[in-house]
Amino acid sequence: MIVYLNGAFLPREQALISPDDRGFQFADAIYEVVRFYRGRGYHMAEHLERMGEGLRALRIDANPGFYPDVARRLLEENGLIEGDATVYAQVSRGAAPRAHAFPPPGTPPTVYAFARRSDPPAPVAGGKAVLAADERWSRCDIKSVMLLPNTLAYQKAREAGAMDAIFVRDGFALEGTKANLFIAAGGRLRTAPNGPSILPGVTRGAAIHTARGFGIEVEERAFMPEEMFQADEVFFASTTLWTHPVVEIDGRPIADGRPGPIAARLREALYSEFTRGELTRG
Fold first, then answer.
1. Is 147 buried (19+), middle (13-18) or exposed (0-12) by CB count in 10 A?
2. What is the pLDDT of residues 69-122, one digit of tens each?
């Protein structure tokens, strides 16, 4: 595999990052993942905007403008330009002697990126989820690499035979460990509003835009876990899943325990947009 590190394209085995890197020592870094089909990035502008907002929020002196050219070169170098692939990019504050204070001005950030084939499609029958206390920090809108609470919650889900965990904070179900969360009830969609409690998902935005185009009302309001059990559908939305139904939570079925039509319709529309290259702003 050929990866990108600080201006160079090289075999992954030769990509060496300092043990003093602040991404390693402090999780002082952000990341972004874009999905590509035949070299076209899905909603690239929105991903770059989110990356820029994260860098500014953490005061990391880097410009996300590197990403499009680096991503294309990685797809070409790894034989992925004609397929369905994802490109991961991570930017840390750089390497410096360990201290909580920021390193001196001019310390170069560490920029790392790699490409790989997209995950196989999730089973159409839907998946199970579990509820988990949301122990993340208060700025979940920043796509930080500090994912330990997500990892622990996801492991809890895996050990329970579930596909993911749903974070619950202050009595509200917010999102999964790596996907946004929707419910459908009475023909209306509901999802937690953008803000510090959730990640502003690009596919979330595209799903909202598409649903409204279908004439489906979308309410951006947080909901309680019990509302999920009263809903007609519950589904995740993310770069890797598109929209994917959740048919059981904590052992309790959602509706009749089968995927619903809204998630399926949105998934078909989003995937069609992706493969045709009609990448409108979501």
1. middle
2. 999 999 999 999 999 999 999 999 999 999 999 999 999 999 999 999 999 988
Q: Report yes or no on whether pTM surpasses 0.85.
A: yes
Q: Give the residue carrying structure tokens 């996801």.
A: 154
Distance CA 13, CA 90 (A): 17
Rg (CA), the chain: 19
Question: Who contacts 186 (Cβ-Cβ below 8 Å, separation ≥6)?
Answer: 232
What are the tokens at 187?
């023909």
Q: Which residues are catalytic?
A: 143
In tens, the pLDDT along 216-237 reads 999 999 999 999 999 999 999 9
Task: Find all residues with CB under 8 Å of 254, minimum gap 6, and list them.
Answer: 228, 229, 231, 233, 234, 245, 246, 247, 248
- pLDDT of 124: 87
The answer to whether the CB of 125 falls within 8 A of the CB of 256 is no
Q: What angle do CA 272, 276, 282 make, to 5 degrees?
A: 65
Whole-number Å distance between alpha carbons of 108 and 269? 42
